[in-house]
Design goal:
Strand order of the largest sheet: 5-6-7-9-8
Distance between the termini: 63 Å
Number of domains: 3
Number of helices: 15
Number of strands: 15
Largest sheet: 5 strands, antiparallel
Bound molecules: adenosine monophosphate, zinc ion
Helix content: 40-55%
CATH topology of the largest domain: Rossmann fold
Strand content: 5-15%
Mean pLDDT: 89
CATH architecture of the largest domain: 3-Layer(aba) Sandwich
Radius of gyration: 26 Å
Shape: globular
């Protein structure tokens, strides 16, 4: 046996490049531990249903995970749930003010909840449901702020001990002057920039510097409160992410992600806290997703352009638009994560069509989950090349539009040759669908409970009608067959007859 290493030419090593906000350039993501990526992505505050803008940011994290898996890396991926409320933006004029979750509880929608814990539990459950609807892979861990209170209190105590924090009558603050690198992520180095009164910058006359931010807020009236060395109260917003990231991923992590609004103050403050605690660089790469707009405007309930995932995906009977969730995901993928993205109904409709074509491919070549294939023959070589180019695009700072172009190109080629595909070509197409899905997650659900259809109450109504219609047609009873077709239409179902029988799907109202 020859134990000599393979010639270098056989080892294809491609870099995974990601734009780093900290250095303002694209950099190779090189895990500290060989082939094992550690990364953290900021999750939502669970005070309402997460909207498609939030999911644009969560999708970036999912794509990092999928691309790392495509390189064969192990990944430890943590994304949190902020289930402790924090101040609303309108606290500018009301510094003593309400937090987002308390405000939600007092609203009309909040009436359905027994208390604030019930509200947090509900919106955490629905977050995870929508996460799966969009085919986002489960993180390694999804820690909750409320379950890490002891660690947060310990971190604040240590910051005080190390001279990075101090107590006043209202709370405990991080002393910005104790950390000379404050501002290195956002580039906000002027005092005025750092004072921006956003979310957690509290008005307290005893603060030593207006830029100092809260680590702990004293409040024995708050609906969520814990006992601490500083009395009853609750933590500042930023400390939870420092603590949870370090608990699950270690003191130095490879990558930290979130939406662009988090660069300052949230991520700037996370760096200050974590690096003051450890004396080590907290995250090597910081990746930020640009905001999503809808029909060219900031999403807002007032403009009627505010969409949660369930607004788009839920069946019409439940108040949704009945859109295929993977088409929503595909729409989000059609824009590069670092460019502003305009979500429009027109793009969504286009992606519904793309998804239908993918379903046609599956119908033609067979379900890859039942029968995996292999890249063989001429078609196999072409499809393998397309997968390779899609993967290269993702390695190049998650270039999703270029990766999708390979998906659409392959779909067109397969459907264009529908009449000439032999079993070798069909098997190659199945393998290609599996690989493209592993990378982009828009072909089928890969992390989903298997029996989604069996749980679908509509299927229980529709399927007996389809059988009855087939029987009426076989008996030549065309009147009855038409009646059943109308009945199916009234259920919001579209049917398609082919030589292999009748298939059905929900009509999409967009
Ligand atoms: P929040 O619950 O506001 O803390 O938001 C949770 C995550 O969604 C954060 O990473 C935000 O940056 C991100 N996010 C919020 N709105 C948008 C948007 N319109 N587009 C992209 N990301 C967003
Ligand atoms: Zn965070």
């Amino acid at each position: 046996m020859n134990n000599e290493p393979l010639p270098q030419a056989h080892i294809v090593s491609k870099e995974f490049r990601i734009y780093n906000t900290l250095t303002n350039k694209s950099e190779a993501l090189v895990p500290k531990k060989k082939d094992h990526l550690t990364f953290y992505s900021c999750g939502p505050t669970v005070y309402s249903y997460a909207h498609i803008g939030n999911f644009r940011s969560f999708l970036t994290a999912d794509l990092i995970l999928r691309t790392a898996h495509a390189l064969g890396w192990d990944v430890t991926y943590a994304t949190n749930v902020t289930d402790v409320g924090h101040l609303t933006e309108d606290d500018l004029t009301d510094p003593s003010g309400e937090d987002r979750m308390v405000k939600a509880l007092k609203s009309k929608e909040g009436e359905q909840f027994v208390n604030i814990w019930d509200l947090a539990r509900h919106y955490t459950t629905t977050l995870v449901e929508d996460w799966h609807r969009l085919n986002l892979r489960e993180p390694t861990v999804r820690p909750r702020a409320t379950e890490h209170m002891r660690e947060q209190i310990a971190a604040v105590e240590q910051l005080i001990e190390k001279g990075h924090a101090y107590e006043t009558d209202k709370g405990v603050y991080f002393s910005v002057t104790s950390f000379p690198d404050y501002g290195k992520l956002s580039g906000n180095t002027l005092d005025g920039d750092l004072e921006q009164t956003v979310r957690d910058v509290v008005v307290d006359d005893d603060k030593r510097d207006p830029r100092d931010f809260a680590l702990w807020k004293k409040d024995d009236k708050h609906l969520m409160q814990w006992f601490s060395p500083w009395g009853w109260g609750f933590p500042g917003w930023h400390i939870e992410c420092s603590v949870m990231a370090m608990s699950y991923l270690g003191e130095e992590i490879d990558l930290h992600a979130g939406g662009e609004d988090l660069i300052f103050p949230h991520h700037e403050c996370e760096i200050a806290q974590s690096e003051s605690l450890t004396g080590k660089p907290f995250a090597t790469i910081w990746a930020h997703t640009r905001f999503l707009q809808v029909e060219g405007e900031k999403m807002s309930k007032r403009l009627g352009n505010f969409f949660t995932v369930r607004d788009l995906v839920a069946p019409e009977a439940e108040g949704g638009k009945g859109v295929d969730a993977l088409a929503v995901r595909m729409t989000l993928l059609s824009g590069h994560y670092r460019k502003p993205f305009n979500f429009t109904m027109k793009t969504l409709r286009g992606n519904v069509k793309h998804r239908e074509r993918l379903e046609e491919v599956i119908a033609l070549v067979g379900n890859p989950l039942d029968e995996p294939g292999a890249y063989e023959g001429d078609t196999g070589a072409i499809l393998e090349g397309m997968y390779g180019r899609a993967k290269d695009a993702m390695l190049d700072d998650l270039n999703t539009p270029a990766a999708l172009a390979q998906l659409f190109g392959g779909t067109k080629m397969i459907l264009g040759n529908a009449d000439h595909l032999d079993e070798t070509a069909r098997a190659a197409a199945r393998r290609w669908l599996v690989d493209m899905n592993a990378l982009l997650g828009v072909v089928f659900y890969d992390d989903q409970p298997e029996s989604a259809d069996e749980e679908d109450p509509l299927a229980a109504q529709v399927e007996p009608l389809i059988v009855a219609r087939a029987a009426a047609r076989a008996a030549g009873d065309w009147g009855r067959a038409d009646e059943i077709r109308d009945e199916l239409a009234s259920l919001g179902v579209e049917i398609k007859d082919s030589k292999d029988g009748t298939t059905w799907k929900r009509k999409q109202q967009i």
